[in-house]
Design brief:
homodimer; alpha/beta; metal ion binding (chains A, B); MeTrfase_capping (chains A, B)
């Protein structure tokens, strides 16, 4: 699977990411104070005339502009407090080639209006869409002061190599991701790919950022050092169970399932810290785990929670599944997934973990 | 009509701009040597490490990257000739909010690949989409060295004011644009709007461009000082005739037609020269009229030329017509338009005029 070309978050429709991103929106709400603090620290000593801000993995939907509104508000607040004339803002929205930028751009004018209502003195705010993988250079050297990325970095640049044995037979049989039953070489292959991707991400961004710039990142992580721990692999195991059902009914070919692995990894804190330290472009200013149970973000009085959760997952995963299996199977798959998820009482769902990081670009 | 929100060139489909822009493509081919010369003049004295290039009104379709390939090739050629390391290129593609940027972005990777095949030493080429009207500021100050705009500037920012009399009754009855039968206040109102828009365009770009930068523009113009001359109003008159037919059949309401005027103006050379001289930000390096007859760009052995020409016109006009009249009328309208155009033998079609300009940003 050519992840760069396949993966994207759909901008419209029942099963689109745009309409099923409450979980990510919940993270963004929690990130606001962290973003504000990062901006404050960044602007504590100098006040650039022009500030470059990038949102990497902006997707499309109601969340796209949420962090930017916080960032712009924080920048203007600090400049006003210091009685400085407001800077020129250059905002770059990045996502993969297939992202629905048309939806994003249609929302630009009202974003700009809402900013201008609050910040009358902000004369120059320029917004551009920058398509491409953030595992490649996407912006000019020394052009960014603040980089934000929410729920992007647990996506790998590709499905890891090393998921087949020497004879070419799949090692992660019946599973779509790191799972409790995966042989140890599978999580190793995933970790190895994450290490390569995350280090590359840091290296590329360090070229694009000015010294003393800040990077505010949030992405899915796991609590324990064991990548197969039950709490983290819960949704994967349930999805694999839904796939197993379709295999048993002859709807999905077993070999096709064995060769499907999602390009996604949830690192633990130590893995992330080690990579940042080793790469040396950034120092860690803040590293915070957010643990959340479903009740933190599910709508209250939700009846059919399985259907709701399956729909949320579908928003992120559907394009890859369709690419590999064809679109005929997705309705049946997510129907079965709903059923399986419904069997687990809400109280028994594992918590989910996100990391929030603020990194400072070294001199 | 809120032109900024309504006007856009469709990226896909039988009647899309993308599939009906042979005429504009033909202009672009003629522009190549002019672009190359402008780049050469711009780079005759200094060799910036980072070069900003904007294509304003990039639309979507096969033409979008055509001028950029010429520009990038010319820049690299000159740097190589002078044995300088190739610069960083920042490319900005601009069009209105409703433009199909998704189509443009899907074509990015192969554009970048084709550039990298030819220019291996070009390490940094960044491309961004910049949605918004070029009658507003869209890019940071002093960020551009070369601005290109093809077939954009004959579109006005809005339908001119002053197309109704004091009692609010429409002056340009039965016509969709400046026409031979328009009262003189109509072309005056159009000219006035063009003067405002073109001067504003120059002023805004001068803020975004570095001194000594070049602007390469092409847009539709007219030969004579009379804005109602037959040669220029030919297609408008024929379209009005098609509308008149729909009015006579009760398909289009007469009042609705009287209140429809297209936000488009074809200036003559003197009008353009005067505005550039008066605004003072740019000097004229080159001003060239391109006159073309149909045979220059129509496919050879075309049978049903009316249908072909109506389809080309539809690519550019359909969205505005649908916005004003509803989509029910467009098939009938362009069917009738085809018939009317077919009645004119190919040999009797007037020539069309485009201007090609190279402007140099003053110090």
């Amino acid at each position: 699977m050519d992840v760069e070309k396949v993966l994207h978050m759909k901008g419209e429709g029942t099963y689109s990411y745009a309409d099923n991103s409450e979980f990510q929106g919940n993270t963004l709400n929690k990130m606001n104070s962290i973003i504000e603090e990062a901006v404050m620290n960044m602007l504590s000593t100098n006040y650039p005339e022009s500030i470059g801000i990038a949102d990497l993995g902006c997707a499309s939907g109601p969340n796209t502009f949420s962090a930017l509104i916080t960032i712009v508000g924080a920048v203007c607040h600090i400049f006003r407090k210091e009685s400085k004339p407001l800077p020129e803002l250059r905002i770059y929205l990045n996502d993969l080639w297939g992202n629905d930028f048309n939806s994003v751009f249609k929302a630009f004018p009202s974003f700009l209006e809402s900013i201008r209502e609050k910040e009358e003195a902000l004369e120059s705010c320029f917004v551009a869409g920058v398509p491409g993988s953030f595992y490649q250079r996407i912006l000019p050297a020394n052009s960014l002061h603040l980089v934000h990325s929410s729920h992007g970095l647990h996506w790998l640049s590709k499905v890891p190599e090393g998921l087949n044995d020497k004879a070419g037979l799949p090692l992660n049989k019946g599973k779509t991701h790191v799972s409790q039953s995966s042989p140890s070489s599978v999580p190793q292959a995933y970790l190895h790919q994450f290490q390569k991707d995350f280090s590359l991400f840091l290296k590329l961004r360090s070229k694009e950022m000015v010294s003393d710039g800040r990077m505010v990142l949030s992405f899915a992580g796991r609590k324990t050092s064991d990548p197969c721990e039950k709490e983290d692999t819960f949704y994967t195991e349930q999805l694999s169970e839904a796939f197993a059902f379709l295999v048993s009914k002859g709807v999905v070919d077993e070999g096709k399932l064995d060769s499907f692995n999602m390009p996604r990894y949830h690192p633990c804190e130590d893995e992330v810290r080690e990579l940042i330290d080793r790469e040396q472009s950034f120092t860690i200013e803040r590293f915070e785990p957010f643990e959340r149970c479903l009740q933190d973000w599910l709508p209250p009085d939700i009846g059919d929670h399985g259907r709701y959760l399956a729909k949320v997952q579908r928003g992120g995963l559907e394009v890859m599944i369709i690419h590999h299996f064809g679109k005929e199977i997705v309705d049946d798959l997510f129907e079965k997934y709903s059923e399986i998820l419904n069997k687990v009482p809400l109280i028994d769902y594992p918590k989910r973990l996100d990391f929030a990081l603020v990194l400072r670009k070294s001199d």
